[in-house]
Write the structure tokens for this entry.
Amino acid sequence: MKKKLKLVAKILLWALAGVVVLLLALPLWIGPVVKGVANSVVPGITGTEFHLGEFGLNPYTGTLHVGDMQLANPTNFSEKNAVDLKALDVDFAMTSLLFGKKYRVEFVEVNGVFVHIDPPKADNFLKIAENAMGGKEATEKESEQETVEQEQTEEKPSKGVQIDRITLKDVTIKYGLPIVIPMDIELTSIGADSEYGAAFKDVWTAVRDKVLSAANSVGGALGDLGKGAANALKDAGGATADALKDAGGATADALKSAGGAAADALKSAGDGLKGLFK
């Protein structure tokens, strides 16, 4: 009897040791598993090619890394990819996942993102959203259902998120012309003033609007630069200067229009994709 009990104890100890080893190795094997699943499943949802090259999650330190990610456009679009992301890093407080009235994220850093918006109405993103939700009619029904659910839950506070800092670097938006945003885009203290934090859709809206504002300012600055160069050339003299002024003014108007149109289109795309990321 004693031998049997000793044998059972040994088996339990070995099983416990195995569980501990698996838990300690979790950050090592979770990345390949997630990458394999994502690269296999996502194309069937979006109806487009998808590639995820880097994924790392350490549940003990609360860090997440995503890198080398591309979401391709549907067929018959001029640009290969709708989204190209170099790196995304997130640092979150693990205890907030279980305790507290809101999730706590210390920082989110996006480094190197390219977004292609097909003019005039971000048709590529709308097509991806339709694929993900089973067609245009399903997309419209999903939007209606989301509105109903929002009205039903408005009076019931739900657990939101507090993000201390969001930083976006090296952002490029292509809407006919590529608009490169040279400055870093930063948002701070999102949801800090709310007991339950900010809703995730409100975080998305805040980030989107900040990017749109930066894109508009870049479009306007490029337009002013083009007009300034044209005026300088006009002072240099003659009919050539007048012709260059017309070209500079036209380029300025085109850049300003591109900035504004890209902003409108990205807003439309963001609204269309709410169901996809729900």
Summary: Residues 223-252, 272-278 have pLDDT under 50 and may be disordered. Residues 200-236 form the longest helix (37 residues). The helical segments are 2-24, 26-46, 95-98, 123-133, 136-153, 200-236, 238-272, 274-277.
